[in-house]
Structures are given as structure tokens and as C-alpha cells.
Amino acid sequence: MQLKIYNSLSGEKEIFKPIIEGHVGLYVCGPTVYSNVHMGNVRTFLSFDFVYRTLKYLGYSVRYVRNITDAGHLTDDGNVGNDRFVKQSKLEKLEPMEIVQKYTVDFHSILSLFNSLPPSIEPMATGHILEQLEITKTLIEKGFAYEVNGSVYFDVYAYNEKGGNYGILSRRNIEELFSNTRDLDGQEEKKNPQDFALWKRASSEHIMKWPSPWGEGFPGWHLECTAMSTKYLGLSFDIHGGGMDLKFPHHECEIAQGKACNGINPVHYWMHANMLTLNGQKMSKSTGNTILPMALISGENSFFGKGFSPMVVRFFFLQAHYRSVVDLSYDALLASEKGFLRLVDALKTLETLVPSDLSSLPIVSWVEKCDAALLDDFNSPILISHIFEVVKWIFYIKGGEETISHRDLSFLTKKLNGYFYDVLGLDFPKSNNSEKLDDVLQILIDLRNQARKAKNFELSDKIRNKLLKQGIELKDGKNGTTYSLK
Ligand code: AMP
Ligand code: ZN
User: Fold this and answer.
1) Taking the C-alpha atoms of 362, 365, 367 and 373 in order, what is their torsion angle to the nearest 10 degrees?
2) Using the 8-state DSSP alphabet, how is residue 76 labeled?
3) Radius of gyration in angstroms for the set of CA atoms belonging to the chain, rounded to a whole number
């Protein structure tokens, strides 16, 4: 059977044919590191972590590139407005690069709490200014971009005149776009409202700026992904992913830039993960309808009655397909927690099963069904439903109602553990409340308190987060720090 991927470009599931057999180039738009990641961001990155893990499970060697946006992201999608990093640096009284460092560290520690694998390459926009300048120069030379007052804009009209198809991904009718949006809304420099910034002139007080042939400035947001994806994966590569809200204008602009600059479509398969909502509304930094990962885990939030462990939350996300909208609600989280604990119980029971001479259950065809779910556009909810079939079997075998042969038992153990740990990326704490654990934890609690006293919050947070990842939550109270197993 072959892997099928839903390609946002065609709107259909297509048989996946990598450019180089056995290898996959995967690019995912990373976070804009000017504030803490919220659970919506986390869902998108975990969706692609699952895609990455599945591709590896299917035998591909994957080069996974996920960027860090640390420059050029303006408050209005990249054309006018304030630079988010500069704005935040003023608020926090830190250097812009301190903001970048602070929130990159936060991003990494949050994703590792949720067991997300690191990408193969994690390039930063500020490290690729030269590449972005080169693309901008080429686009001007080829007549796809123009300079005004030290800023350079991509000329969408010229692109379409020369055979481009702006709107191809988001299925927007370009003629309508042109006729409906005449008002340039403070963007008088542009020939057309659809034109987008490749390079912006920096005012004298702007801190993050670089020299260019058009004076000091900084790159537009869309350009960085074109520069970094093509640098590390080739001018045309296999899969590009991101959240659904990046389809337009970000990915539409990436297609136009790549095609205009290099003469070929940059991406073969466009994948978009759907949104996470909170109480039925899109979670977003700008509206404030968000919940931060630590608030969800600790239970210190105004939405839910208690906290949920990172693995329960990861499991909750995987119970939905990456292309479905998911609503974060208390009842759904409680249901996932119950399901996850039953699954963990089954995995522990599996270790205690005694094999018989014969199997009464179809283990081989069960594996085929699980693999078929993965091959069908990374269908995690179907995989999980098959896994729960086997959970039932495990308890039947334990109760003596079914039997399993030696061979099937070792096959089932290998496959079920593979799906649980490697593909779904789940885990659970192996040890329980022993005296030794108490002693070791006391050492860690003391170390963390020392770090906090020394104001080394990076270390103290690291200790707390790493323990949380193991299912151990620290609580600071009047009588010192205590811990509980989650
Ligand atoms: P940002 O840091 O805002 O650039 O976003 C990082 C990633 O999170 C992008 O792929 C966004 O599409 C994604 N994202 C933002 N909000 C949500 C949401 N509510 N649900 C799922 N993904 C989101
Ligand atoms: Zn991007």
C-alpha cells in the first residue's frame, strides 16, 4: 500500500511520490518567538511531529526543517505596522535578541514536555539575511519586484501577467482581489494592495536592521521561508506544512516568490493542520482567547477544573485528525484522560500476559489495519480506534477469554509499543511512589530551590518542566515544595 497525502494545492488526497526515492524533505513554518507559545501553536507543531514520526516509521529518511521567525514579522502580516520583536523588547525592556532567545528557549522546553522530536535543522530568519537579499535582487532583475523609498515589494500583478497564478493555493480569485481592495490603507508605496513586502526600509530608531542595496532595512516575513526552505531542501521539495491560517497570505506568497525566482513550483505537497479552538473560538495571541501550556498542565487557569498531563493532552490532540478543528473543552480532556489511562493499563498488562500454543485473535491483520490508517493521510484517530480494539483483547487474554501464541505476543508487543512510543510519541512514568523516588525528588527539589534563590529561573524552570514530563508535578506552598504524581 502507498502513502496518501491530502494536498491543499489540489484539494485531494494524492499518492505520495518523493522527489528522491526513500527520502523526504519536510519544511514546517516555525514559531514567531516574541511571546510564549499557546496551546494552538502547540497543536500545530505536534501535528507535524506526528507526520515526521509517521514518515520515519514508514521507512523514509526525513530531513525536517522548521524555522524560527526572529525578524521581519510585522503586526499586520508583513507590510505595515510595528516589528513585533522591537515592540516586545520595549515592553520587557530587553534587547530584541534577548526576546528571541527567551521565547526560543520557552518554545523548546514546551515542545519537549509534549515529547516532540527536534527537527533536523532549525534555521533562524536573522541568520539568512544574505539569502533573502539575493532572492530580492533576482526578483527585481526578473521584473517581479520593484523598489520604492528603500522598500521592495513583490509585484503580484506582474507575476500573474507573466503566467503566475497568485491565489492558486487559497483559491482566491485574483481579479476579485484586485477589484475589491482598492484602498491602499496607509500602504501608498505599493502599486497594488496585494503586493507584499520583500524588504522594508528601516526608520532610524528601528533596532533590527541590515544594510542592503536599497539602504538599511529588514526582510518581509514571507521571504524567510522561501530562503530557508530552498536553501536546505532544494528549489523544489516534497512537503511544506503549517497551520491552516498560514495558507493565505503566507504560503500563497511563498509559492509566488519561489516560482518567480527559480522558475519552478517550490513545493509538491502542501499540508495544513487545522486550528485549535477554546470554547468554540479560534485560539490566538491577538484576541487573547488563549491558554498557555503550563496553565493547562498545572490547572492554574480559569477554564478547567484541574490540570492535565502533557501526555494526556498529546493523546487528546491525536484523537482528532490533523485536518479537523479541535475544541479544547473540559469534558473532552477528561474523556481523553480516561482513555489514556486505560491504554497505559493495557500496556502494563501486556507485559504480564502468558502465551498459549495458539492465538485466537487476528494480530497480523490488526497490524495491517493500523498501518493502513497511517498510510491514509496520517489518520491518527483511526489508528487509535484500532489500538483500543487490541486494548480490549489484552484484557480478554488476561481474563482467559482469548489466547495468544508466543510468536503473536512478541509481534503484538513490538508493534503496539512502536505505535505508542515511536509513532504517536506517547509515554508514561514507569516508576511509582517508592522511598527511593522520595529521596531523589527531595534532592531535585532542593536544587531547584537553590536555583530560584540565585534567580537562575532558567534552571529552576527546567527542573520543574523535566519532572512534569515524567508525570511529577511540583507545588510550591507555605510549607515548602511538595510533589504529586500525575
Ligand atoms: P505563530 O507563532 O503565530 O507564527 O504561529 C505558529 C504556528 O501556530 C503557525 O503554524 C500557526 O498557523 C499555528 N497556529 C496559530 N494559532 C493556532 C491555533 N489556534 N490552532 C492551531 N494552530 C495555530
Ligand atoms: Zn513560513
Assistant:
1) -130
2) T
3) 25
Looking up cell 510595528, which residue turns up?
Answer: 82
Question: Is 408 exposed, middle or buried, given 0-12, 13-18 or 19+ CB atoms closer than 10 A?
Answer: buried
DSSP string, 252-290: HHHHHHHHHHHSS-SEEEEEEEPPEEETTEE-BTTTTB-
Query: For atom 10 of ligand 1, which residue has the closest CA?
Result: 243
Q: What is the mean pLDDT of the chain?
A: 92
Work out the number of other CB atoms within 10 angstroms of the CB of residue 168: 15
Q: Which amino acid is at 249?
A: P
* Ligand 2 center from residue 97 Cα (angstroms): 20
- For Cα atoms 127, 132, 136, give the angle at the middle one, nearest 5 degrees: 165
**Mean pLDDT lowest among 187-191, 273-277, 436-440:** 436-440
Please report, as a single letter, which amino acid is at residue 104.
T
Could you write out the DSSP letters of every residue in 42-57? HHHHHHHHHHHHHHHH
Which ligand approaches the C-alpha of residue 325 most closely?
1
Give the integer Cα–Cα distance in Å for 430 and 354.
21
Average pLDDT (123-152) is 97
User: Do 195 and 154 form a contact (C-beta atoms < 8 A)?
Assistant: yes
Per-residue pLDDT, 433: 59
Joined grid coordinates for residue 12: 485531494
> What type of residue sits at position 105?
V
Q: 127 has which bridge partners?
A: none
Cell of 1: 500500500
| Cα angle 92, 84, 139; round to 5 | 150
Nearest in space to 269 (alpha carbons), one of 5, 84, 3, 2: 5
- The 10 Å Cβ neighbour count of residue 374 is 22
Pocket test for ligand 1, best of 44, 124, 170, 296 (most atoms within 8 A of CB): 44
Tell whether the model's pLDDT for residue 384 goes beyond 90: yes
